Fold N-acetylglucosamine-6-sulfatase.
Amino acid sequence: MSKENQEDEEQGQASRRGFLAGSLAAATAVATTGLSALPGLVQPASAATRPNILVIVTDDQPKQTNWATQKIRNWLVTQGVEFNNGHVTTPLCAPSRSSIFSGRYAHNHGVLDNGHPYNLAQNTTVQRYLKQAGYRNGFFGKYLNAWNVADAPPHFEDFALLDPVVYNDGQYNVNGTIQTISGYSTHVIRDFAKGFIQKGTTDTRPWFLYIAPKAPHGPNTPEPQYANTVVPTWDGRPSVFETDKSDKPDYIQSANATLADGRAIREAQLRTLLSVDDAVQAVHDKLVATGQLDNTLVIYIGDNGFTWADHGWTKKSVPYLPSVEVPFYLSWPAGGLGAGTADNRIVANIDIAPTILDAAGITPDTPQNGHSLLSTYNRDHLLVEWWEQGSHTAGSPHTWSSYVSTAKQYTEYYHLHTDSNGQQVGTGTVAFREYYDLANDPYQLVNKLYNATPAQEQALGIPALAAQLAADRTS
């Protein structure tokens, strides 16, 4: 067992089967200290009153999208917890979603790229644990990239798996039957979710519902009513206007996207998110109408962020903050998390599965890298990693890993890539390094390792950071 998992085992035993019963005063302390060490850890509910669990995962949604998600925020932020330092541990769809399901880093769950979803061991997933514990599991929307649409998503009782993932008139595997369903896919997924929730009025089992719309992923096709919605003007941020990129890796030096490019992507993303906002509100209303809202643990997250021409880049897959930071909300009124609080801890997608199992009173039989958000665990940094799929091509980042804290970020790029089986191959030698003082340079404009002397590296603490990063990569 890794040191991190040993610490989790030691610190988590007391709270693994507990949930938080917080108060407004304690919530204020959370916002101030950055901890959710709310008083009132209590014994778990009985099996008959275990919480329902709703997870909503959007596709390519960066943090700065609040304008389009006001209904979501009115529910999950005003009546829940907003994690101000929410991250993904791999800014790519399939690896990130596999981390949500398993609570593990990609180097542990094995889905390193978007081409090998079957590398995920399904016995390590939260849906397996919940099904085994008697939960009724439902899944609607996007599953894992390159998954065969004819294959049922394991451990889900009701499902409508969308593949290929499109906005209009999609092909779905509905409980084993492949069919085309006309209409805007966000609406289709919404309606399946509402039907699943309705079943909770007659089926006494607790349920787990996973909703995954395509939005706001490209091509960012809005539904007709929002096709021409006026989006507030965005003037960019300093990273969009960076002119001297000589201290950046080669793929960033050759990136040439402009503010206009970033604006166009942002505008299209926001328009598709307006439909997600409506859909989530409809799910909320169904929970209220069926009397199931209070004891439903809801978690909302983007599977990765997205850059809007930051450093000339208009994608994800990079270690820069717009790519790895995501909106991350949690609400659970019956668990004391419904008052509207802010949590400043460094949290990530790997924390979702441990949180769910903690709330349900389930102890996993496989190691997890994440930690329950219902516990007092407070990490000082996070490992973020990404693999290049196939041999290196110009204009693409090498495989990289990064040490990320609120104050600094250290990144190494490697001569590594994934092969036809999704396994990493290559020499592993370091191709490039970056270090950013995030406290004073939040837009990552000055790579302090560029032309740094050994003495300067020592002063920055690079040897210790490199050693920690190496340890994290094998945790």
The longest strand covers residues 424-437. Residues 1-45 have pLDDT under 50 and may be disordered.
